[in-house]
Structures are given as structure tokens and as C-alpha cells.
Amino acid sequence: MRRVASTVGRIPPALWALTAALVVVVAVFARWEGPWLTRQELAKVSTPVPPAVFNLSLVTVKPGQQACVVNVTLPAEADQAGLAGSVPGNRRPPELSALVSAPGHVWRGSIPAGWPSGLNFHYDPPARDTRNGRVCLTNEGRVPFVLNATNEAGASGPASSTLDGKATSADVALELRRNELSSRLSRAGEMLSHAADFSWRPLSGGVLKVLVALVIVLVPVGGIGAVLWAMESDRRREDEGLG
Fold first, then answer.
1. Cα–chain-centroid distance for residue 94?
2. β-strand partners of 74
3. Is the pLDDT of residue 197 over 80?
4. What percentage of residues in the chain have a pLDDT greater than 70?
């Protein structure tokens, strides 16, 4: 009489191993990335020029010079600009004048000497999302300062930088935020929506959303499918051996 092997009613060790591995991955991710994902911070609305990842460049702004990030889309929901920089020799940071402008919209303000809030300042946004905007800082003091910038290929996009109207060799990093605390986890969809700020268009906007969704779905499904396929193959081999 032919004996038929069955896996019904028992869970194979391979499936136990896969489940345990997934649990470990989720636990490690939650342990190390959880605080980063849930930390409350000012919501980033747009990143016209992301910060350098590997090679930090600097743009020096001498007294009287004006540095601008141009070709910026100014979102109506953003009301704070964030840049980063320093003063060589640990000297006292100079007073700066700030300008945020776009067709039909101009805002002027200042950053006091000493930069008590860093190179972050609130501004009045336009009534609607407006393209061809500029975010500028002018050195009103007597000492030069430097702005963090990048010339990495993956960071180049529509926005670029100028110094007294002339293009710079690196683009000044710029974030546009709104004065509202939220976590990265709560802004996951929004962060993907703003991926279009990056220049590599094949991975921008909706395409990036689809790819991320596919990775989230297909990686675990593919792993489970591979295990089930291996189980079925083992069952068939066992049936053939017992036939």
C-alpha cells in the first residue's frame, strides 16, 4: 500500500525559523530606529537641497556678500527656513539679513549676531505654492562665515546656489519646515511625496512610493513563498521516495 506523507497538522522547522527571524528583525528595527522615527521635531515640508552625505562642501560668505538658494519652490505650508553654517576661528557669528522671495511675494527679516537659533528663521510664506523662489542670507557683519553645502551628484536638483548672483561650485543645503511638531513616522507618506525634490527623476514622486510599497510587501511575502515552495518540493520528493 502506498504511504502518503502529509505536513498537515505540523509546522515545519523552516517556517518556525523564518517566523523567528522576522520577529528578530522587527524587534531590532523597533529598538534602534523607533526613537528616530517617533522623535518629535519641526515637520520638514521640503528639502530643496539635502545636506551632504559623504563629502561636506563649504560656501564662504564674506562681509557684504549675499548667498542665495535659487529656483526653490516655496510651499504655502512652510514658514521656517533651515540652513547650517559656522564662523571660522570660533569668532562671534555676524548679523545677517534674510530674504525669502518669489514672484508676487517678498519677505525680509534678520538673524541677530551670535545666531541664538542657528541659521534657522521664520518667514511669512506665500498664499500658495510658488515656484522660482529664493532664500538668501546677506552678511551684515565684519567677519566671514561659511554655509554647509554639497556637490554630490545625487543631491543636485532644480534648486542651486549663488553668491552675489554668481553660481557657486556647491549647493547650499536648505530645508523648509512648518512650525509644528510631529514625528517622522507620522509623516511617512508626506516624506515620500516630497521625494520629487531630488533630481534623479526615475525615483521621484509616485514612482518612489510604489517601489517602497513593493519592497515592504514583496520582501516578507517572497521569503514566506520561498519557504512554502521548499516545503512543497520536500513533500513531493518524500512522496516519490515512498511511492
1. 30
2. 130
3. no
4. 55
CA 216-221-223 angle, 5° bins: 105
Q: Which three cell numbers stand for residue 92?
A: 562671534
Measured in degrees and rounded to the nearest 5, phi and psi for residue 203 equal -115, 30
Residue 140 half-sphere exposure, CB side, CA atoms within 13 Å?
14
Q: Which CATH class is domain 41-180?
A: mainly beta
pTM: 0.63
Reported confidence tier of residue 99, pLDDT bands at 50, 70, 90: very high
Instruction: Give the pLDDT band (50/70/90) at residue 192.
Output: low
Q: List pLDDT tens digits, range 155-171.
A: 667 899 999 999 999 99
For CA atoms 146, 152, 123, 185, the dihedral sign is negative
Task: Name the β-bridge partners of 81.
Answer: 121, 176
Q: Are 100 and 133 in contact (CB under 8 A)?
A: yes
Domain residue extents for the chain: 41-180
> Grid coordinates in use for 51?
545636506
**Are 144 and 62 contacting, i.e. CB atoms less than 8 angstroms apart?**
yes
Give the integer Cα–Cα distance in Å for 26 and 12.
Answer: 22
- Grid coordinates belonging to 230: 521548499
Residue 226 CB contacts under 8 Å (≥ 6 apart), including other chains:
none
Locate all alpha helices (DSSP H) within the chain, ordered by sequence.
13-38, 188-193, 206-242
End-to-end CA distance of the chain: 9
Q: Which strand ranges, in their side-by-side order, compose the sheet holding 41-49? A: 41-49, 174-182, 80-82, 120-122
Q: Each residue of 118-135: pLDDT tens digit?
A: 999 999 999 999 999 999
Nearest-angstrom CA–CA distance, 120 and 111 = 8
